[in-house]
Amino acid sequence: MKLDLINRNLYTDSGNFIKKLHCPLKVSYTQLEQVSGDKMNCRECRKDILETANLEDRDLLEIVKNDPDKCISIDLNQSNLIII
Amino acid sequence: MNNLKANPNALPVITTGRSEKAINKAAKNGLFPLVKKVEPSKKIRSKYAVFQHKITGEIEVVGDFRADFRDHDEYEKVIDWTWYYPDPFPEPFAAYLIPPDLQAGDKVWLEDLIDDYVGSHWNQGNTYRLKSAEAIWTGKDFKIDYDALRDVCIMVG
Fold first, then answer.
1. Under an 8 A CB cutoff, do A30 and B151 touch?
2. Phi and psi, residue A22, nearest 5°
3. How far is CA A84 from CA B8, B26, B81, in A?
4. Does A6 contact B124 at a Cβ distance shorter than 8 Å?
5. CA of A21 vs chain B CAs: smallest distance (Å)
6. Region B111-115: what's the mean pLDDT?
7. What is the ipTM, given to two decimal places?
8. Measured between CB atoms, which of B118, B123, B125 is closest to A77?
9. Residue B2: pLDDT band by 50, 70, 90 thresholds?
10. Tell me: the pLDDT tens digits for B71-106?
């Protein structure tokens, strides 16, 4: 996946738009609780947050297509991420 | 740039040799050089643009998009915004200098990280490499303690 750090738009490696990373509560990592291996929960709004480090682009695209408000987390150091 | 305070837990410090001479000097003094490639990460980047005065020819190098509001009657942008790797090292190799008494499981402070990690970022797209970090010596290599970094490097939304 590719992340545009300036506008926080996330794309697949082939350039398909996935979603814009936006949290109205400006939640940070320390406000998340680990629920399971790839899932966290937000202490502020109680939504589940999906970690993306081990996700394939097509899987993430499908998840967001089914739930456009799905919250995700991206670690800038994760190996499947390109910064653009 | 480093978001962590220098050695906050006062751990033993592991230094890094960045040249053949420095590495060999350490080896002669009883330290074991754990040699690694220096491989710049594409995730570490800064940007610049160059403006040139149309009459005097003098240039001004800027790194902040807000500086783009320059008087274009007087200046011409001769190099548009360009990303580059900002931390070139003198040699393509380096070595952590391991003291002979270091034991597997020891926690240390790597004062000059060889690997590139994003340590922080700016909303104009710049990212900055982590300069130092805590790590655990496994007996063969160091395992970087990344937890302290997560709050600045994980984006949620």
1. yes
2. -150, 125
3. 33, 40, 13
4. yes
5. 4
6. 96
7. 0.88
8. B118
9. very low
10. 678 999 999 999 999 988 999 999 999 999 999 999
